[in-house]
Design a protein that fits this description.
This protein is α+β, with helices and mostly antiparallel strands and 236 residues long. The chain is 31% helix and 28% strand. The chain has a single domain, classed as Dihydrodipicolinate Reductase, domain 2. Strands 1, 2, 3, 4, 5, 6, 7, 8, 11 and 12 form a ten-stranded mixed β-sheet that branches. It starts with 9 loop residues before the first helix and ends with a strand.
């Protein structure tokens, strides 16, 4: 089971439909993601995420995981060809990452860039840019309100004749939910268990498959950082 709560919000399914709709977004070409929050001194000194013997990947394994999952989600989990870490990652005295980023590249020219940090303002952005449109969500991991999830779409936009504004304006969408995404995640887990227990079904392969792909990219980014931000091929 993949404990990535935003994957279970109905907004995510709605955005998935729009990303797959060639008329709305077109071919996905660029994905950007930022996940960060400001940490106090107690966190930076004592939290398990900054301890090399407890959670050695730091911000990359914690917040960067979500960024990478979002980018893979946007391309239907097609692994990139290679990754290059952004220069000057921030580490604590123990060598654990406090802030870092990377760019991902695909053979067909798609590119994705992310940044994750324990040192900057609370941000949970994802932008998916296609040949025809753009999807932007600003509260990806934790919705502003657990009862609904907003996002915006620009589709076939241009500037007006005098270049003083956009036409058409972005459309704003809100997806409501009776249950918060954390409860929906537990429901999905129960469904998976019930399928095995009650009808002798086989374990579902989706969640371990996409979890593994996410970790493959996380590991490639860490390797790039360790190698002076050189390009690293992503093994399938």
């Amino acid at each position: 089971m993949d404990c990535t709560m935003w994957m279970h919000h109905p907004r995510t399914a709605k955005m998935r439909q729009l990303v797959a709709d060639q008329g709305t977004i077109g071919d996905v070409r660029v994905i950007n993601s930022i996940v960060s929050f400001p940490s106090d001194e107690d966190f930076l000194q004592n939290n398990i995420r900054v301890k090399p013997d407890l959670d050695a990947l730091g911000a990359l394994g914690d917040l960067g995981w979500y960024c990478i999952r979002a980018m893979l989600w946007a391309v239907d989990y097609e692994l990139p060809k290679n990754v290059i870490a952004l220069r000057h990652p921030v580490k604590n005295q123990a060598g654990v990452l406090l802030a870092c980023g990377a760019s991902l590249y695909w053979d067909d020219g798609k590119v994705a860039t992310f940044h994750c940090s324990y040192l900057t303002n609370l941000t949970m952005d994802m932008t998916v840019v296609g040949t025809n449109g753009t999807i932007h969500v600003t509260d990806l991991l934790i919705p502003y309100d657990e009862k609904y999830g907003p996002f915006s779409i620009d589709s076939k936009t241009a500037v007006n004749e005098l270049a003083t504004g956009w036409v058409p304006h972005p459309s704003k969408h809100v997806v409501t939910t009776d249950l918060p995404q954390e409860a929906l995640m537990v429901h999905e887990f129960c469904r998976l268990v019930g399928n095995i227990r009650d009808v002798s079904g086989k374990p579902e392969g989706k969640w371990p498959a996409i979890t593994r792909k996410t970790q493959i990219v996380v590991d490639a980014v860490k390797t790039s950082i360790d190698n002076g931000c050189e390009s690293v091929n992503v093994a399938s």
